[in-house]
Amino acid sequence: MIDLKDIETIIFDLGEVIIDLDSKRVIDQFQKYSDKSAKDIIRLISKSQDLVDYEMGKITDTDFCQVVNELLSTELSQTSFEAIWNSFLGNISLDKLHLMLELKKQFKVLILSNTNPIHQRAFDRRVGELIPSKMMSEIVHEAYYSHELGLRKPDLLIYKKVIDLQNLNPTKTLFFDDRIENIIVAQDCGIQAIQVTYSEQILDQLK
């Protein structure tokens, strides 16, 4: 358990913190339509500047689908592409959603996530199935998504933006993220940042 007596704000990343991710499943789905190897699919998409641009809201859903079709030599329709792209999203634990709702009674609770419109629509639908009439952003006080801010972790500016918008005291702010580069920059801003390394970690440390 983490001592929260001096904490005012808790910020959660989504992927691998609140939402499990399944990279193998999405790659397997793309391989059904592409002659590229799994290794090449991962490299082509993850290293693409277009993915960064998409997560920063610089290109549309349709643009991104077209980019991936070109990268993988596929001819996926928008609907088929979005279904495959959303297969990356794994389980959303109801226990984690309930934990955030409970924490919200005592702390300012925020989300800060690198994501994109297709995934946002998908996880909002999933949250609504678990807690009727709720979207992910309604589980917390405020959700900050990279494609809406036009900024992306680990850019220092995205942390400063959230600190300024919420008038946060960084030393009294706790941040959970799975990627070490995001943790390091958050710590550089004075935030107490903890790397998440397994699915149930926030339940073990905060419940």
Short description:
This protein is α/β, with parallel strands linked by helices. The chain is built from eleven helices and seven strands. Strand 4 (108-113), helix 7 and strand 5 (142-145) form a beta-alpha-beta unit.
Question: Top keywords for this entry?
Answer:
207 residues; 5-stranded parallel beta sheet; 11 helices; globular; 48% helix; Rossmann fold; alpha/beta; 14% strand; two-stranded antiparallel ribbon; DNA polymerase, domain 1; 2 domains; single chain
Q: What is the helical fraction, as a range of percent?
A: 40-55%
Largest sheet: 5 strands, parallel
**How many structural domains are formed by the residues?**
2
CATH first level of the largest domain: which class? Alpha Beta
Here the CATH topology of the largest domain equals Rossmann fold
Overall, the morphology is globular
Indicate the mean pLDDT: 97
Largest sheet, spatial ordering of strands: 5-4-1-6-7
C-alpha-based Rg, rounded: 17 Å
Topology order in helix (H) and strand (E) letters = EEHHHHHEHEHEHHEHEH
Residue windows where pLDDT falls under 50 for at least 5 positions = none
Helix/strand structural class:
alpha/beta
Q: What proportion of the residues form beta strands (DSSP E)? A: 5-15%
- What is the tally of beta strands? 7
The first-to-last residue Cα distance is 8 Å
CATH level 4 superfamily of the largest domain:
HAD superfamily/HAD-like
